[in-house]
Amino acid sequence: MKINKTYFIIFICILGIEISIALFLKSGFIRHTFGDFLATILVFSFFKTFSKMSSLKIAITTLIIAFCIEFAQYFQLLNYLNLNQFKLLRVVFGTNFSIQDLMAYTLGVITIYFIDLKLLHNE
After folding, report:
1. DSSP code string of 32-97
2. Which positions ≥6 away from 27 have C-beta within 8 Å?
3. Does the keyword field hold Membrane (predicted)?
4. Cα(115)–Cα(34) distance, rounded to whole angstroms?
């Protein structure tokens, strides 16, 4: 397995930003919307670090994962599975469904996909 160093660096940088947002911001646009935008870039970058799948397949997979997590919030899956007492799961999965989050995920995937195509010269 070959590691894509460019995407690994992007992944580590975005992970650091996401952790900082989670630790230091409790509300607002950066925490709720921009964090979701970055989350899809984080997932895309993680997949690109280790996978030879096409960028389009990774983008679609990333968006499906993000939407599934958001709809799990809508259906209160953590409550249903009696897992809402675990703070890490609440941070990862979130607690409130939002159409804005779906838009942020979509814009994040579109952004990283076009960066991948135009600037990083991948397929």
Report:
1. IIIHHHHHHHHHHHHHHHH--S-HHHHHHHHHHHHHHHHHHHHTTHHHHTT-TT-HHHHHHH-S--
2. none
3. yes
4. 17
Amino acid at 12: I
Residue at token pair 């779906």? 102
Cα gap 117→123, rounded to integer Å: 6
Query: Residues, the chain, total?
Result: 123
Note the pTM of the prediction, 2 decimals. Answer: 0.89
Contacts of 3 (CB under 8 A, 6+ apart): 49, 50
**Six token digits for residue 87:** 């703070």
> How far apart, in whole angstroms, are the C-alpha atoms of residue 39 and residue 17?
10
Is 37 in contact with 108 (CB distance < 8 Å)?
yes
